[in-house]
Amino acid sequence: MARFGNTGWLCCPHCFDKLQMQPGLGRTLGCAAGHTFDVAREGYVNLLPPSGRAGAVHGDAEEMVNARRAFLQQGFYAPLVVAVGEMVAGVLPVDRTAVLLDAGCGEGHLLQSLCRSIRAGGHEIHAGGFDLSKPAVRRAARLMPDTTMFVANIRRPWPVLMASVDVVLNIFAPRNPAEFRRVVRRGGHLVVIIPAMDHLNELRTLVPLLPVSPDKEETLHASLDGFALAARREVDFGMSLPGPVADGLLAMTPNAWAVPSDARQQLRNRPLIETRAAFIALLFQRGASGLENS
Ligand SMILES: [Zn+2]
Q1: Of 56-60, 64-68, 154-158, 245-249, which range is least confident?
Q2: How far is it between the farthest Cα atoms of the chain?
Q3: What is the per-residue pLDDT for 81?
Q4: Among residues 47, 124, 177, 280, which one has the fewest Cβ atoms lying within 10 Å of its Cβ?
Q5: What are the pLDDT digits (tens) for 190-229?
Q6: End-to-end CA distance of the chain
Q7: Cα(137) to centroid of ligand 1, in Å?
Q8: Which pLDDT score, from 0 to 100, does residue 1 have?
Q9: CA of 244 to the centre of ligand 1 (A)
Q10: Distances from the Cα of 6 to the Cα of 29, 149, 210, 243, angstroms
Q11: Which domains can be identified in the chain, with CATH numbers?
């Protein structure tokens, strides 16, 4: 049975009090007010409040989760993992175990690769991740049994204690600047990866991909009250993608719905597509004092 990671920084989604493993209750997390949450067999916990569970489809569907795993595990984004791993390793505290939280972790492949590369450098980390998609979190938990994985909505208040995280990762996921500010310790960091303007340019000549918003970086900077830019790195690298793999890359993003199915079929029929991935990795530091209001 999968273990469940260090939970000292989780809080109850109802009352926001600290969550702890409940002695005598098996694999159950609970708060002082008596709200309890069972750890699933796969080693994750669903911390969506009941009001957030009803109705709408939650996060990425199984198909998109599978596409993301299938694409990433072939290692096409390895240069990005290396760059982000170096960025994170460079700011981790050296005198204690750091808490690393992947906000919008998807099926967890990137987090797993990052943890490997950071630990290989001799750093001690407690890693956690959450996503709105239960199929994604389930797969992430199976991949990383010693990691704290949970289902939560990134756009809502997170079930994470204030000032409890050393580094928040936000990779190809929605953003929540208020929660970044609340959960990252003073002096701690936030890593955001965004696509550069020329991301997948060659692929764009073949299929009508969703455009990259030209003001994305500026919008991001402007939204991050309480954080200062500490480092910026452009990461770009070539990829030779067999047609079906290129289609898989589309299938793991909102392009899955945006690109017409006949265009995707033509893409799948192509033998090999040479394209470049281009990202901007941004490292922000939470103001050590005076910058924030929480
Ligand atoms: Zn509670």
Answers
A1: 56-60
A2: 60
A3: 94
A4: 124
A5: 999 999 999 999 999 999 999 888 888 999 999 999 999 9
A6: 39
A7: 22
A8: 45
A9: 46
A10: 12, 10, 39, 41
A11: 55-286 (3.40.50.150)
